[in-house]
Amino acid sequence: MPSYFSLLFLTLFCVSAKSNDADNFLSSTQKFPVTMAEKLIRQLNLFPKHEINKATDDSVAATEQGLFEKKLNLSYIGDSGATVQNLGHHAGYYRLPHTKDARMFYFFFESRSRKNDPVVIWLTGGPGCSSELAVFYENGPFKIADNMSLVWNNFGWDKVSNLIYVDQPTGTGFSYSSSEDDIRHDERGVSNDLYDFLQVFFKAHPQYAKNDFYITGESYAGHYIPAFASRVHQGNKNKEGIYVNLKGFAIGNGLTDPEIQYKAYTDFALDMKLINKSDYNTIEKTYPQCQQAITLCGKDRSGVACMAAYLVCTSIFNKIMNIVGDKNYYDLRKRCEGDLCYDFSKMETFLNDQKVRQALGVGDIEFVSCSSEVYQAMQLDWMKNLEVGIPSLLEDGIKLLVYAGEYDLICNWLGNSRWVHAMKWSGQNAFGKAPLVSFTVDGVEKGVEKNHGPLTFLKVHDAGHMVPMDQPNAALEMLQRWMQNKLTKQDHLAPI
Ligand SMILES: *[C@@H]1O[C@H](CO)[C@@H](O)[C@H](O)[C@H]1NC(C)=O
Ligand SMILES: *[C@@H]1O[C@H](CO)[C@@H](O)[C@H](O)[C@H]1NC(C)=O
Ligand SMILES: *[C@@H]1O[C@H](CO)[C@@H](O)[C@H](O)[C@H]1NC(C)=O
Q: What's the average model confidence in pLDDT over 221-243?
């Protein structure tokens, strides 16, 4: 990766703009409105010029809809409970119909247990970070060992679901286009592409279309997930295509309601003793401007207010980080090491290995773990409130789980708990009054949760931003119990 990437690419999973000097950042970023970002995309000429996903003999589903899928034959080490031959592991590209030339890359891992397990799709955030981060470091079927072998993940979510990971928006991970017109700038574009993907996926895999379907993900996916859930629900209502059996959506350490979540930064930082009261008072003075700009952004068609909101609100986070120093803002128990605070180099090495690339059918496409261009292109989307579409989903009985690892700063549990409580729907009062109960796995309390009807909030102990990485067993239990409506069945009260 050329070094200018790290200048532009300011954070990994969620909205922030960390810099050592908030004011310098402000003045330099003001020169980067979206038109500038688009110009950069063209200048950097990042899009591959040739197509690579030609149908081959081992394509198992080369349909006229433009889905190219390969059965994976990678070597896995350890006891999977299945032979490699029996594993339904696939990777593929899908040509997105409402684009000039975009191809969406995805993994599909059939359940290790039962074909009629729910279908779960996972979306990593960024915006612009590849879902392969989750495949190999969070909840995928396997992990990458130090010697670059794949070893089974005993807590892969494919133990209880048929699991899909997509690289999106276009330009992320292995997904690509030859046209910059296909770069997405808002949740409408993102959710339409995801809906199109899902339709063709179920066309190619009709045996899975009747299964329960869940949307999950993390971080900036706190934007994608509600938008995608609403899009699927609307498609079902309008009978636009294959009926999708959407049962619920889960957001892990997400950014969903910026007005509430940006207010929570200073409160959380004070609670966690990251800043003192006088720092708090100083930083908080910025919030009213941030709030006003977010309100305007909600009504704004030109994008000016959204850009202003981005600049002002992220300065709150920057000021906190200036005091906090080199702590990892995804996990306050750790230090931030390297550009992205974690070391994901094993994944990059693995995915650039020639044999792996051949197995995946990705040709010469560069793997971009986090795309600064995609990030930039979504800049005006960042301060949009994605909570607004959720109440109507809840009223129609579609479940929402909001969970958060307690040591994450950037999409902290406090801000998430607040927006979930503030959300206006028919169950709001009852949810507010619901008891906080213990979330226990193997006799150990792994978090505290509360629930009313379709809505559940879960704060996960001993975890940062990436809950399935930090608490793999608890995360798998969470998913399974939530899908089976058993998450809050134990009724013992926990002290707050
Ligand atoms: C997978 O690849 C190995 C060699 O890399 C080969 O021996 C084996 O037969 C392949 N399995 C399948 C199911 O294609
Ligand atoms: C690679 O590492 C894994 C896990 O530590 C181990 O099981 C495997 O034997 C190693 N493979 C080689 C070829 O050393
Ligand atoms: C609060 O912390 C700042 C550093 O962030 C320090 O300069 C200041 O003296 C502290 N104030 C008090 C009252 O402790």
A: 97
pTM attached to this predicted model: 0.87
Residue type, 117: D
pLDDT digits (tens, 9 = 90+) for 398-431: 999 999 999 999 999 999 999 999 999 999 999 9
Q: Which of 157, 220, 110, 91 has its CA nearest to residue 469? A: 157
Burial of residue 326 (number of CB atoms within 10 Å: 0-12, 13-18, 19+): exposed
Probe target for ligand 2 pocket from 79, 80, 149, with the most ligand atoms within 8 Å of CB: 149
| Token couple for 276 | 């003192």
Largest interatomic CA distance in the chain = 67
Mean pLDDT confidence for 427-448: 96
**Which of 274, 279, 282 for mutating ligand 3's site (highest number of atoms within 8 Å of CB)?**
279
The question of whether 396 is a catalytic residue gets the answer: no
What residue's CA is closest to ligand 1, atom 4? 73
Q: In the prediction, which pLDDT does 454 show?
A: 97
Point out the ligand nearest to the CA of residue 152.
2
45 C-beta closer than 6 A to ligand 2: no
Asked whether 7 lines ligand 3 (CB < 6 A), one says no
**By alpha-carbon position, which residue is closest to atom 14 of ligand 2?**
147
Nearest CA to ligand 2 atom 4: 145
Q: What pLDDT, on the 0 to 100 scale, is given for residue 265? A: 97
pLDDT at 446: 97
Mean pLDDT of the chain: 84
* Burial status of residue 287 (CB atoms within 10 A of its CB: 0-12, 13-18, 19 or more): middle
| Euclidean distance between CA atoms 156 and 161, whole angstroms | 9
Pick the atom of ligand 2 nearest to 146's CA. Answer: 2
Q: Which token pair is 293?
A: 């700009």
Q: Which amino acid is at 46?
A: L
Spatial separation of the C-alpha atoms in residues 350 and 360, rounded to whole Å: 12
pLDDT tens profile 116-131 = 999 999 999 989 899 9
Tokens for 284, please give them.
């908080």
Q: Does ligand 3 lie within 6 Å of residue 273's CB atom?
A: no
392 is catalytic: no
What is the reported pLDDT for 368? Answer: 82
Catalytic residue among 177, 191, 219, 230: 219
Is the beta carbon of 358 within 6 A of some atom in ligand 3?
Answer: no
Among the residue ranges 187-201, 353-367, 377-391, 401-415, the one predicted with the least confidence is: 353-367
Which helix (H) or strand (E) element contains residue 194?
Answer: helix 187-204
